[in-house]
Amino acid sequence: MGVFGMMLFGIDDDSKSKPEQQNVADQAEERLSELIDRSKAVAALSVYAAAVDGSISLDEYMEIDMNVGAASEKKKLPERVVEEISSIYDKHNMTWDDVKKYLDEVSTDSLAEMSGYLDSIIKADSEVSEAEEQVIKQFESYVESRK
């Protein structure tokens, strides 16, 4: 586990010498990996849903930030991940296939939680377009295909 993960989860360097602590370190690294994958997937799904009607409103941007923060459980993510999420924010022409690549990396349990994030994005600007309704259907179909 890297220094960041050790600091994040309160693990010291001596953990490598003790099997039970190594197991904790492995679990912490796995948990961080899950948070990273979920944060990127939420960012991609949120940006896709927000931009599907042609533009992303300020309210939608704010909701995207809150969604990603909630998905990462307010943990500080590695800089490379923050940069990747930032590049996702900039992709207003993201396709459903782009989004699925991120969704494929998360567990089915995480997918179930994402419907709430999607709902908050769709309702952020107080208008639900036909295109946004289609995103909901795409996501529901995707989730069903993963069961």
- Average pLDDT, to the nearest integer? 82
Shape call? globular
The beta-strand count equals 0
Ranges where pLDDT stays below 50 over 5 or more residues in a row are 3-7
Radius of gyration: 17 Å
Range of helix content: over 70%
Describe this structure in words.
- The chain has 147 residues and is mostly helical.
- 73% of the residues lie in helices and 0% in strands.
- α6 (108-124) runs antiparallel to α7 (130-146).
- The model is unreliable at 3-7 (pLDDT under 50).
Please outline the helices and strands:
Elements: H1 3-9, H2 19-51, H3 58-71, H4 79-89, H5 96-103, H6 108-124, H7 130-146
Helix pairs in contact: 2-3, 2-4, 2-5, 2-6, 3-6, 6-7
Identify the notable features of this structure and list them briefly:
147 residues; mainly alpha; 7 helices; 73% helix; globular; disordered N terminus
Quick structural summary:
The chain has helices at 3-9, 19-51, 58-71, 79-89, 96-103, 108-124, 130-146. It has 147 residues and is mainly α.
